[in-house]
Amino acid sequence: MERVRPPITKAGFAAIVGLPNVGKSTLVNRLTDTKLSIVSPKAQTTRNTVSVILTLPNAQIIFQDTPGFHEATTALNQAFVESVLRTIKMTDIVVFVIDPTTKKSNHGEEIERLAVQSGKPIILVINKIDALDKKVAEDLVSKRLSNKRFSSVLGISALTGYNCDLLINEVIKLLPKGPYLFGEDDLSDMPERFFATELIREQILNLLVQEVPHKTAVTIETFKEIENRVLIQANIHVERDSQKKILIGKGGNMIKNIGTAARQRIEEFLERSVRLELFVKVSPNWTRSTNKLKEFGYLDSR
Ligand SMILES: Nc1nc2c(ncn2[C@@H]2O[C@H](COP(=O)(O)OP(=O)(O)OP(=O)(O)O)[C@@H](O)[C@H]2O)c(=O)[nH]1
Ligand SMILES: [Mg+2]
């Protein structure tokens, strides 16, 4: 009797790393056709390493969106840096993203060095190619091709999707052979309540200017089904009274707008009707307190 050979599958982790604001979260959303990673025009949007799973015929890629790598000035920033380093250590493949449109002199040399040091295969992704002249973009890619430390160099646009299928193919080539690590329908390793806090934070980033969003953390106090609706009660923590005033806004307008927009996004995500209640709390100096960072989910509580 002829035996049917099981298909050979590949599965593994691909960490998306780079400086803040280069488009890592936009890229993860594009590659997985989800909106699980929050995106904003402000740097330092992502705070936790979030795995988003793409299951294809015979291959499962776990893309890990990481916080932008930057100088550690507070305990919160230190937690970001450690989270990126831990992710590079554990991953199978590093996707190093750079933004050629930035005027900054730092293009992520430090994170590139750490990625090389890890000995993992590295794909260099030059993102936001849509915002460049075609010839300039081609020159940038060919200049980097000579660096033998990169398994491949790709010019892409996470915004338009240009060359994103090529990137997926490059990742699959480098993936280890093995069985799937998650169920075929799994989208992430994070629970629903985590995404609820992120969608609230996304609206805070969108609606408030300057420093306040960076001094804001969101915790979920209640997440339960009541009469066909999900009741979510969340605390928004800030460092100072003045920030609390800005978040609440004149006559409570700002917090109302944040609540309405966030509720709509959470309803889309959960595909259920939601009642969202937000409370603003002052937690003095939380970005510098390791205890608070643990409580808010930015540091391992071990
Ligand atoms: N023109 C253009 N803009 C892009 C592209 N990808 C991302 N952006 C924009 O860049 C900004 C930052 O995008 P994010 O995806 O939040 O960047 P990030 O690297 O995850 O940022 P952090 O989480 O802060 O590290 C947003 O305004 C995006 O719309 C792209 O391919 N082209
Ligand atoms: Mg991000």
Q: Are any ligands bound, and if so which? A: guanosine-5'-triphosphate, magnesium ion
* CATH topology term of the largest domain: Rossmann fold
What is the CA-atom radius of gyration, in angstroms?
20 Å
Number of domains: 2
- Percent of residues in beta strands: 15-25%
Strand neighbour order, sheet with most strands = 2-3-1-4-5-6
The average pLDDT value, as a whole number, equals 93
Fourth-tier CATH superfamily name of the largest domain: P-loop containing nucleotide triphosphate hydrolases
What is the CATH architecture assignment of the largest domain?
3-Layer(aba) Sandwich
Number of strands: 9
Helix content: 25-40%
Order of helices and strands: EHEEHEHEHEHHEEHHEH
The first-level CATH class name of the largest domain: Alpha Beta
The largest β sheet comes out as: 6 strands, mixed
Report the structural category.
alpha/beta
